[in-house]
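Researcher: I'd like a structural prediction for the single chain below. Treat it as a standalone chain; there are no partners to consider.
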Amino acid sequence: MLFSPLCGDGVPLMLISLNDERLMTADEAAARLAVSKKTLMRHVAEGQIGFVNVGTEGRMHRRFTASHLMAFITNRHTIEVPKCLSIKPAAVRTTATISKSMAIAFTALPRPGAKGTRRP
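Model: Treating it as a single chain, here is the predicted structure.
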């Protein structure tokens, strides 16, 4: 059995074979992705995971199929590229200083306001 929702023009929006794929609740889909339900719903809100709305106008009941979850996993999959071994890190450069300044200890600095005599 094929389900084909129509938009105002009578053009099918998408075809879903309900015989092939079982609809999962948000809890089941979150368990399959090994994430919390809150994280799953955040991905849904961001448009990263597709869903089927089986609810009414007042209350949305989102259901997920295995193909929705696989599409999400495929889009999130990254390939780790090894670093190029032929590129060496830049060598640390040392330069001679021409400054006539010298380093002194912090404790050797005069304290501000200490002029030698104290007032009673």
